[in-house]
Every structure is written in C-alpha cells, then in structure tokens.
Write a structure and sequence with these properties.
Length: 386
C-alpha cells in the first residue's frame, strides 16, 4: 500500500487536459446572443463562417454555457433591459474547450480581438479548486477504529455558546451549501421519508437541491452515492457499487457534503447542527459522472470529478433563491485576495458581487495551506472559516 499514492499521482499526471477558456459575450445591441453562439457551434456540418471571428481563427472543440440554468420569459426581458446587472452579465459567459495541443497565446489573441467578446481568460485545468478536506492518503495504512457509540452530545453547541444565538433567532434560517452533495436519506438530515411523510430533518426537497455535476444538463438528485452509468472511461469501475454486472458505478470516497450539512443543520439528538431549524439547500458540484477511474495494485478507485460550470452554477443559483447565507467548504489556492480587484471580470467575482448585492453572508473554507487563505475565503466579502 505504500506505493499506491505515488502510482495514482503518476496516473493523474499523465492525463491530457483540454485548454479551457471562459469568454464573456458582449451585451451590445448588435452582438449575437450566447444562445446563438452555442447553437451555431452544434451545427453539423459546421457553418462556413462563424458569427465570432475568434472561432474562424481557432475553432473550439466544445462551446457551452458557464451558468447552467438559463433565464427565460420575463426574467430574460429584465436582463436584456439591464445588461449591467451581474446576473445578466453571468448569462453571457461561455466555456470554450480547445485541443490540449492548441496555441494558448493565439487563442487569447483571437478572443481579445473579437468585437463580440467582452473578456476572456484561460482556466488552469491542472490547478482547479479543491475541497476543504482532500481525498484520503492511500499510501498510508490507517488503523481501523471501532465505531463510536451514538450517544447524545451537544459539546459543540455548548462550547461555541450557540444557545445565545438561538435566543435571538430561534435557530431558524435558510442556508445554501455548495458541495459534493450529501446522503439524502440520512436520518438526521432528510425532511421526508420515502412515503412523503415529514420526519423532521432540515433538508429541503425538489428544486432546492440541484446536481450540476453532470456531463450535460442537471438533475435533482444530490445523493453523494447516486449511481451513474459505468460506460466509456468509467466502465472499468463497474464493480465498485458491489455488482460488477449491473452497468452502474459509484464514487469510492464520499461524505464531505454530508459532514458539512450535518455540522450546519443536523436535526437529530445525537449530534445536532448549529442551525437547528434551518432549511438547507444543496447544490452539488462534485460528482461521479465527471470522475475518473483508476486501477492501483488490482483495486479499482473512482474519484468524483469537478467542473467549473458546476462549481459556479451552484454559487449563482444559491444567490438567487432566497438563502440568507451560503457555505462553500472549498476554494482555489491559485487566486489571492486581490483577484477581484485585478481581474474584476472573473465570473467568480461577478457572483460575489451578486451575493453582496443580495445581502447574503458568504462563508468560504480557509483552506489547507497554513500560511495563505484560498479564494474566495481571501476576498473581503467572504467570511473565512477553518
């Protein structure tokens, strides 16, 4: 087992990453809509001339929306009439994926010189945001400990004097969480059982839970152990769910989002969360469908995967559904606290401004670096935790 982590890191280092850019399309009256550009990119055969000059110079392999939920109807009309609203600006961002051997400088130049592109910047696919708790170190032989007795403990509540806060708010609120999903049937979290009976938990149902961690589209199942099709690159991991012949697989390591949700709003008497009567909305940005399958010393591991579109769509959605606070137990160590001053058109910065305008408290994980805060915890509009 001592060599497993080294082997796994070598395998990861050999992956080929696409060159990815975020591009904001101009909202000027003569500019094409983001929808027109996405739809034109899907034409087969491709058109002889693309509406974006940049695509005629270097055509991306994939073009998609950064923000997954698209504005329609009256909301779209309001955005068209208020193009400087952060929410309207975010609808103009596209994700552009180029071959991994493309000329990055030429791509940047083509986008910078396109009159319909307001801004564009490259995403470092080798240095993506990470969770506050990393995957386990598989090179270590962890000692197995007996399960803890499920005895009632309110130590965390008492030590932090949470009762004083409850006297002011009655422990009530609406909390949004962007994370890996959670265990949707956890007895301390679920609000309804399989028959629709209310069982007391704080986890809201329906459209208050969205899984953005999909290869396309979204769904409303935020379970960390949601099975996905074991096809293509995930086919070798078919047996991880316990049945090597069912065509389904699950992630090898889960629990981060469940742990976070429990700290915030677990309702059970065993280890209650700090917000005892809070509604919880979970936006899932880490998922199995985006993951990678590895075989190390004869054992298959499926690591859940990440996409910037899922990551930022979660923030943006929570900013618009009425939550009072948002928790993000993740962050980007490559951006510093001045990121939004030096590069204010980063999509992350527009979302932070939207959150601020909506008077929502945003809490971000400080990160695992003992000397520097990761972003967005390092931004002065964010409360750093951890």
């Amino acid at each position: 087992m001592k060599t497993i982590l080294t082997i796994l890191l070598i395998l990861v280092s050999q992956l080929a990453y696409a060159i990815t850019f975020h591009a904001q399309i101009s909202s000027e009256q003569n500019a094409p809509s983001a929808a027109y550009i996405v739809n034109q990119s899907l034409l087969s055969p491709p058109p002889p001339i693309f509406i974006l000059q940049a695509f005629n110079a270097i055509n991306p392999e994939e073009v998609d929306y950064l923000i997954r939920i698209r504005a329609i109807g009256n909301l779209r009309t309001i955005m068209d009439n208020n193009p400087g609203w952060e929410r309207a600006e975010l609808q103009q961002y596209l994700v552009l994926a180029y071959p991994d051997d493309a000329d990055v400088a030429a791509i940047q130049a083509s986008l910078d010189n396109d009159p319909f592109v307001a801004s564009a910047y490259q995403i470092d696919e080798t240095n993506l945001p990470t969770l506050s708790v990393p995957y386990p170190d598989m090179s270590k032989n962890y000692k197995k400990t007996p399960p803890l007795n499920r005895t009632i403990t309110t130590a965390s509540i008492n030590n932090a004097d949470i009762q004083s806060a409850w006297e002011l708010s009655e422990g009530m609120g609406y909390v949004g969480i962007a994370d890996t999903g959670l265990q949707t049937n956890h007895p301390d979290l679920r609000a309804f059982d399989g028959s629709g009976n209310y069982v007391g938990g704080n986890l809201l149902d329906g459209f208050y839970q969205i899984d953005f961690a999909k290869t396309s589209g979204i769904d409303l199942n935020v379970d960390e152990l949601e099975p996905v099709a074991a096809t293509a690159s995930l086919a070798a991991c078919d047996g991880i769910d316990g049945d090597p012949n069912d065509g389904l697989t699950v992630a090898s390591f889960v629990g981060h989002g469940t742990h976070v949700a429990g700290l915030i709003g677990a309702k059970g008497n065993t280890a209650p969360g700090i917000c005892k009567n809070c509604g919880i909305s979970m936006m899932k940005f880490y998922g199995t469908e985006l993951g990678s399958c590895f075989n190390v010393n004869g054992t298959d591991y499926l690591f859940a995967g990440f996409s910037y579109s899922a990551y930022l769509s979660g923030w943006e959605t929570l900013a618009n559904i009425g939550v009072g606070t948002i928790n993000l137990s993740a962050g980007d160590g490559s951006l510093d606290g001045d990121a939004c001053t030096t590069t204010p058109l980063l999509a992350e910065c527009l979302i932070l401004k939207l959150i601020e305008d909506n008077q929502i408290l945003f809490t971000g994980a400080a990160g695992n670096n003992r000397t520097n805060l990761q972003f967005p915890a390092s931004d002065n509009r964010t409360a750093a935790a951890g």
